[in-house]
């Protein structure tokens, strides 16, 4: 009888996504606001709530003049649902944080940094840690590590980080005009006023930020060219199309191999690159391996 009763209860439990929709609607006492929070339609929320009510067999909302109000049964279910979903979320987070046996480390990295600096060095990491596989995701700016399924993120720290994230500083950024040696030698009077200034829409302020640190802030381009991404602008500079504001560590390899030169030098921008994690890096041996290697190679940049 106990087994039958347990099966009976399980069969009457509404689906998890329907309970989540109910919780949002109950919390706001609005199907419209619930739909906005969960990125669903009003109709989807309404159908999910109806599904929960059908399974339970009672009304959870009173519907009056395009408004909804929780019934006593709805209030009881909201309390239990919220507690249960919170507990489930915490458990999933703990599992995600402490799944130390996984052979994969999911790394989110700024696209330009990934393509021009990190990827050329991942072979070295693979040789040192052959049993740990890097799953590289390219993205920039703010990140929700849990929601995006990432273990760590490498970011240019020009945004506010969540207070519960651990931030491991990797290096300071240095920036200045860079171009090919051929372009610079052919530039009239080697004067930036005669140059084609290359811009990227992902870093639209780069030239203006650099100019603000110069004695002569009246410099202006002879011509300008815009690209969707920073790495396109850097490639254009390498291909003798003009001058771009390049930054270390992104152009470190290009400068070392003389694919690009920095004729006026590079200056600190006041922005750092950092590794973002949910917990301290030493709590996960996979992250510790990657972090220690990363700090070692970036210090040589």
UniProtKB/TrEMBL annotation:
Belongs to the LysR transcriptional regulatory family. PANTHER family: HTH-TYPE TRANSCRIPTIONAL REGULATOR (PTHR30537), HTH-TYPE TRANSCRIPTIONAL REGULATOR TRPI (PTHR30537:SF74). It comes from the Bacteria. InterPro entries: LysR-type_TF_proteobact-type (IPR058163), LysR_HTH_N (IPR000847), LysR_subst-bd (IPR005119), WH-like_DNA-bd_sf (IPR036388), WH_DNA-bd_sf (IPR036390). This is Transcriptional regulator, LysR family. One of its GO terms (biological process) is DNA-templated transcription. Residues 14-71 form the HTH lysR-type domain. Gene3D superfamilies: Periplasmic binding protein-like II, Winged helix-like DNA-binding domain superfamily/Winged helix DNA-binding domain. Keywords: DNA-binding, Transcription, Transcription regulation. Pfam families: HTH_1, LysR_substrate. One of its GO terms (molecular function) is DNA-binding transcription factor activity.
